[in-house]
Amino acid sequence: MFKNTKAFSGFSVDDIQTAKKFYGETLGLEVSENHGLLSLHLAGGATVLIYPKPNHAAATFTILNFPVDNIEEAVDQLTKKGVRFERYAGDIKTDEKGIFRGGGPLIAWFKDPAGNILSVLEEKRS
């Protein structure tokens, strides 16, 4: 039924203009706005819809992952742009930069201005 449908994902924020600035300027993504909605245009042709929601509640899980070649570099660059990485203790313990090195891919989580959780994760090239 949906085999050939070009599906897309979406999530809410509490302030479209703040989201537009964060995703476009801070993260450097291509962002377009139409009818009060934002579209993130990702590499490979994927699009993610961002919509305003007055009673927005931030996602408690990672909504968007950004694969990177070098996580140290990505974390350093984003930190210089004012992004604050989450620090976790316990089972998912991150280091002083916010990078989880406990098995699996190296990953670091951060939040957008609406509190939604995003990540950068290092992809090993073969």
Description:
The protein has two helices and eight strands, in the order βαββββαβββ. By secondary structure, the protein is an alpha/beta fold. Strand 6 and strand 7 (107-111) form a beta hairpin. The longest helix is centred in the first third of the chain and has 11 residues, at 16-26. The termini are far apart. The model has no long low-confidence stretch (mean pLDDT 94).
Strand content: 25-35%
Number of helices: 2
| Order of strands, widest sheet | 1-4-3-2
Structural class: alpha/beta
What characteristic shape results from the CA principal axes?
Answer: globular
Largest sheet: 4 strands, mixed
Mean pLDDT metric: 94
Report the helical percentage. Answer: 10-25%
Evaluate the radius of gyration. Answer: 15 Å
Distance between the termini: 36 Å
SSE diagram, text form:
Elements lengths: L8 E5 L2 H11 L3 E5 L2 E5 L5 E6 L9 E7 L2 H10 L18 E2 L6 E5 L5 E6 L4
Parallel strand pairs: 1-4, 5-8
Antiparallel strand pairs: 2-3, 3-4, 6-7, 7-8
